[in-house]
Amino acid sequence: MNKFKLSLFLSLMVLILMIVFQTKNEDIKIQDLTGVKKILAFGDSLTYGKGAPSQSYPLQLQKLLSLEVINAGKSGESSSQGLNRLPSLLKNHKPDLVILCHGGNDLMQQTSKEVLKSNLVKMIKLSKESGARVLLVGVPNFKLIRFSTESLYKEVAEQENIMYEGDVLSYIENDRSLKSDRIHPNAKGYMLMAKAFSELIN
Question: In Å, what is the CA distance from 1 to each residue of 6, 7, 11, 15?
Answer without folding.
Answer: 9, 10, 15, 21
